[in-house]
Design brief:
The protein is mainly α and about 70 residues long. The protein has a domain at about 15-60. The chain is built from three helices and no strands. The longest helix is centred in the middle third of the chain and has 14 residues, at about 30-40. The two termini are about 20 Å apart. About 15% of the residues are buried.
Length: about 70
């Protein structure tokens, strides 16, 4: 079965991008969020901010459980 990247419905702080990425990579969401924060600071905020906003718009939200 092929894995798909979705924004998380359950593990979100802002848009669920980091939570969904952590689920996809099968890792801890705190680690993904820390890496994101370091990338925000390291890139001068604007490039990573734009990347996050684009990911928020492009990555579909996790389907609802039935």
């Amino acid at each position: 079965m092929m894995k798909k990247l979705y924004r998380s419905r359950h593990d979100r702080k802002i848009g669920g991008v980091c939570g969904g990425l952590a689920q996809y990579l099968n890792t801890d969401v705190t680690l993904v969020r820390l890496i994101a924060i370091f990338l925000f600071i390291g890139t001068g905020l604007v490039p990573m901010f734009l990347t996050y906003i684009i990911a928020w718009m492009v990555i579909p939200e996790e389907p609802r459980s039935k």
